[in-house]
Amino acid sequence: MVSSSQILVFSFVLLCFAGTCYGEKKKLHFSDLKNVLTVKTDAKENQVMKAGEEKITVTWGYNKSSPARTDADFKKVKVELCFAPISQKERAWRKTEEEVHKDKTCQFLIVSKPYIAAEESFTWTIQKNIPSATYFVRAYVFNSADQEVAFGQSTDDKHATNLFTVQAITGRHASIDICAGVFSAFSVITLFVFFFLEKRKKA
Known about the structure:
- Keywords: Cell membrane, Membrane, Nitrate assimilation, Signal, Transmembrane, Transmembrane helix.
- This protein is α+β, with helices and mostly antiparallel strands.
- The protein has a domain at 30-167: Sandwich (Immunoglobulin-like), CATH 2.60.40.1930.
- 26% of the residues lie in helices and 30% in strands.
- The protein is built from two helices and ten strands.
- The chain has helices at 4-26, 174-202, and strands spanning 34-35, 37-41, 48-50, 55-62, 76-83, 106-114, 120-125, 133-142, 148-153, 164-167.
- The strands form two sheets. Strands 1, 3, 5, 6, 8, 9 and 10 form a seven-stranded mixed β-sheet that branches. A three-stranded antiparallel β-sheet has the order 2-4-7, with no helix packed on it.
- A hairpin with a 5-residue loop joins strand 8 (133-142) and strand 9 (148-153).
- The radius of gyration is 28 Å and the shape is elongated.
C-alpha cells in the first residue's frame, strides 16, 4: 500500500519534471528562425539622424528569392530598432544573445501590426528617448501562438552594412551655453574685484 508521504513525493517530482519540460519548450534560439523577410530603410549608409526630429521609413515583405512560400502561419510582424556591434561593445545591457528572449540587441519598437502577404512600409519619427548609437532595423514575424518564427533585417549577417547613426537630444541649447558663459565670466570678475578690494584694505 502506498503511503500519503510517498504520494506527495511522487507528485512533487512529477511537477518538477513537467516544469522542466515546459521551460525547455519555451527556449527559442535565433538560429531556429527562418530568414525570409526583406527589410529596407531609406536611411543612407552612415547617415546621422537626430532623435525627436527626423523620420525613417522602413519597408518589409516576404523575400521573393526564398525557395518556397512559407508564410501561411504568419500572423503578426514587429519591427524594431537594433544596436549595431560597434554600439554594443562593453555594454552588457545591449548584448546579443542566441536565445531570442534573452537577446538585448533590439530594444526599441518601431511598429507592431498584423502580417499581410504583401510589401508594407511604415514611416517612424525617431523618438526623443533613443540614445546616441549606430543602428539597423530588424523585423520579427509571429505565429498564432505569439511565438517568433521568422525574421528579416536591413543589414547583413555580421551587422556591418546599411548602418545609420542616431544623435540623441542633449537637453542643452545655445541660450543655456551663453548664460553659463556669462555667469562664469561674472564670477571671475567678481572674484578679481573682491581680491583687489581686500588688498587695498590691507594696504
